[in-house]
Amino acid sequence: GNASPLLSGSRSSKTFKPKKNIPEGSHQYELLKHAEATLGSGNLRQAVMLPEGEDLNEWIAVNTVDFFNQINMLYGTITEFCTESSCPVMSAGPRYEYHWADGTNIKKPIKCSAPKYIDYLMTWVQDQLDDETLFPSKIGVPFPKNFMSVAKTILKRLFRVYAHIYHQHFDSVMRLQEEAHLNTSFKHFIFFVQEFSLIDRRELAPLHELIEKLGSKDR
């Protein structure tokens, strides 16, 4: 059979961001392990809830890092199908098109291809996650006052990568037999952002039907 797409050399290493590691032995690492264990129980609504006695910011931080890593991997499996020519604009179906701006380097939104947009987006997210003043990894270092709004912006943008994959590349995902993986990851993501009201409903519109479907199975 073919080499696994994760190992094939065809993918540009640029789009595939390095995994962000949570230091072993840290409290955040324990939280991540807790999250993984509860996910195994199969009840995602319960798995996303804030564990008893835990700090909300820290719980959101750990899960945001985890979603970044998951989306990174999922997108990594289909980068060879997401090219300047196949995806000249960053879209999630015909009605939704995204233009990139990060407010610092690029202030005015620019129209760019999906691979370029996703590269900007993932690089931007990684810079936020690596910023110790925003995502402190040391015990006892407080989260900044604007942490929640930063986390919301990160999650809002990560959602767009899921939306693009579902709308433009789902056939490739099916061919690679990654759809169960993608659906589980996305469902976990949606239940998480719903639990803490982290993404505006308007932003979720491109995948509204899928979100309804995922939610109804679980009530």
From TrEMBL:
Superkingdom to which the source organism belongs: Eukaryota
Pfam family, one: Mob1_phocein
Binding site for Zn(2+): 82, 87, 164, 169
Region feature Disordered, mapped onto this chain: 1-23
InterPro entries reported for this sequence: MOB_kinase_act_fam, MOB_kinase_act_sf
A GO MF label: kinase activity
UniProt keyword annotation of Kinase present: yes
Alphabetical keyword list: Kinase, Metal-binding, Transferase, Zinc
Residue ranges with Polar residues bias: 1-13
Keyword Membrane found: no
Name of the protein in question: MOB1A kinase
Gene giving rise to this polypeptide: Mob1a
